[in-house]
Amino acid sequence: MDMDGRDRSKSRTLQPPTADYLDLISNLASPKTFLFHPPRSTSRSHPTPAAQSTTVAPSTTMDKQQPSSFQQLEKLGEGTYATVFKGRNRQTGELVALKEIHLDSEEGTPSTAIREISLMKELKHESIVSLYDVIHTENKLMLVFEYMDKDLKKYMDTRADRGQLDQATIMSFMHQLLKGIAFCHENRVLHRDLKPQNLLINKKGQLKLGDFGLARAFGIPVNTFSNEVVTLWYRAPDVLLGSRTYNTSIDIWSAGCIMAELYTGRPLFPGTTNEDQLIKIFRLMGTPSERSWPGISQLPEYKPNFHVWIS
């Protein structure tokens, strides 16, 4: 990937973090009562690096399309820099998701859009939403994605039992989530905003990572990043404490929070502020100290008078 200066002609090798995630994936092998059929490439044994890097081509080729090639059907959501519509390819009839970027006449294309496009053109995997095409006209930028029926938050909200899912479904979703995270990290990409709203599900029960607007490429040594990442409830404690040298653990913490929410039907740490979020984490897991977390007292937001909870 050009953004991090690496030579993509060289063969990739699994880094230690990725190997750990694959161990987790293996432990989440589908039970006999598996609710959904797993993707064909899913294996109970550890995937090889080559298999893990396999490119999954989109079902439809949409080269050199125009905005008029698509029919907007309904608005799915609106954010700070984009509006997402359910759409249809007028030629093929295929459903797609159309992400219209809000362009500023003075500032041009938002950096989040540039980042998302550059990363998603590289990340091709069965557990990551496919970017089919990028349509850029004089006054409009539109990203064409594969269509997914709903996000994980809406999926849980529609459950009559307060969002709680059965064991087979949880194992299926976590298996796919960890595969997607492992692939991102193998390719030196941090998602940085994993939450139920950014995990998309289709009618086949496939779960895929979406919304890479906050994602970043990373290298070795670990770069210095902004600490304004990840929705508060899924934000790792080192980020809450002001660390700017976080690594792949930021996504794994979010995944753990999501797994707990799948089991209970409610957020694990629903804080209202940074400090409240830390209090909720420390109350459940214990207040860290220099002994349990060397260097914590040097973090910008560390307070020596934190209440001491013992896990």
Compute the average pLDDT. 79
* Tally of domains: 2
Q: What's the shape?
A: globular
Rg, nearest Å: 20 Å
Provide the CATH architecture of the largest domain: Orthogonal Bundle
- Number of E-state strands: 10
**Within the largest sheet, what's the order of strands?**
1-2-3-5-4
Helix content: 25-40%
Q: Class by helix and strand content? A: alpha+beta
Oligomer: single chain
User: Alpha-carbon distance between the termini?
Assistant: 42 Å
Instruction: Count the DSSP helices.
Output: 8
Contiguous low-pLDDT stretches (5 residues minimum) are 1-19, 29-62
Profile the largest sheet: 5 strands, antiparallel
CATH homology group of the largest domain: Transferase(Phosphotransferase) domain 1
Q: Would you tell me which CATH topology of the largest domain applies?
A: Transferase(Phosphotransferase), domain 1
Order of helices and strands: HHEEEHEEEHHEEEEHHH
CATH class of the largest domain: Mainly Alpha
Residues in β-strands, percent: 15-25%
Domain Protein kinase: 70-311
Organism: Aspergillus niger
Catalytic activity: L-seryl-[protein] + ATP = O-phospho-L-seryl-[protein] + ADP + H(+); L-threonyl-[protein] + ATP = O-phospho-L-threonyl-[protein] + ADP + H(+)
GO cellular component, one term: nucleus
Written description of the protein model:
The protein has a five-stranded antiparallel beta sheet, covered by helices on one side. It has a three-stranded antiparallel beta sheet with strand order 6-8-9. Strands 7-10 form a two-stranded antiparallel sheet. The chain has helices spanning 16-27, 49-52, 111-120, 152-157, 167-186, 237-240, 249-264, 274-285, and strands at residues 70-78, 82-89, 95-101, 131-136, 141-146, 150-151, 189-190, 199-201, 207-209, 216-217. Strand 4 and strand 5 form a beta hairpin. The chain contains eight helices and ten strands. Mean pLDDT is 79; it is low at 1-19 and 29-62. The radius of gyration is 20 Å and the shape is globular. It has two domains: 11-38 and 151-298, Transferase(Phosphotransferase) domain 1 (Transferase(Phosphotransferase), domain 1, Orthogonal Bundle); 67-146, Phosphorylase Kinase, domain 1 (2-Layer Sandwich), CATH 3.30.200. The protein has 311 residues and is an alpha+beta fold.
